[in-house]
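User: I'm putting together notes for a lab meeting next week and I want to include a structural view of one of the chains we've been expressing. I don't have a solved structure, so I'd like a prediction I can at least talk through. The sequence is below, exactly as it appears in our construct file.
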Amino acid sequence: MSGFLGSGKTTLLNRLLRRPEFAATAVIVNEFGEIGLDHFLIEQATDNVVLLESGCLCCTIVDSLHETLAQLHYRRMRAEIPSFQRVVVETTGLAEPGPILNVILGHPLVRDHFRLGRLVVTVDALHAPQAVHRHPEVARQIALADVLIVTKLDLVEDAAAVAALLDSLNPAAIRYDARDADALVRALEGERDEGLSEVRTASVRTYAHHHPAHAMGVSSHAFVLDQPPTWAGVAAWWRLVRDHFGDRLLRCKGLLEIADTGEIVFIQAVQRVFHTPERLPGWPGDDHRSRLVCITAGVDEGELRASLKALSLEAGANPSLRMQDLTTPGRLG
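Assistant: Thanks for the context. Below is the predicted structure for the 333-residue chain, given as structure tokens.
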């Protein structure tokens, strides 16, 4: 869970910790004081783990996130702490979510025992328009989010302008109004295929192409592919966009049918890291077209669209394509 300074994420977490349905929850924070534990009765404390009366666990990051998650898992297995069903990680207000996502999606100590649910980001409706211009991390937090919880909407005169800003930064994100008492519960208890749902939704939102955010040049691009990609093409495309766009490619999600095997896979990448594709038993909906959603900063959509040609490469083709290879006759393949 992320969100800029003063956006209300700690207030929402405090509300969450009082909910009986979230008793089997572990919350990882940078400092205990951020959660406001004075409001809760504490039953016991062991090392950096505090057991709250509600049944929730609260712990601070030890040295790094993957070590803290591993410690929680092994202490649960040894029955040193109560069992938990989910973990909520609260970042600092200035944090870039990308590295945290990569730890959860890709670190062996984490991947074997935990699965990423959703990146939930709180957005201060009153100050967001100014904050995205002044603080690059605000635009990146919003752009990378799976779910946006909008706070302080009662204090703004033009809620439509706030919605338009969020649409331009991340049209694929599920959005809740923080005044909804169940907003955080619904945000964290999303459906199993939440990532797939967002890819399906974004693929039919045409404004994803036509309303780029002015702040920081962050844009969302949704593509429906003309034909299923190949495994060789997926590998070549990822190498190409990683090398060509670098950190400007903030996050990608894709729901693909692989032409050479018929497999249905969900892929995702965060910045320069491409994570292991998730193989699905079948299409999660009626629309069987392959599609990609990419969140970028300062990337020309024409170049990104041109890169999609690499997805159709056959096995044995040159895997080290450059962008000019896709636009020069006779050089592709």
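A couple of points you could mention at the meeting. The radius of gyration is 21 Å. The CA atoms of residues 37 and 104 lie 26 Å apart.

User: Perfect, that's what I needed.
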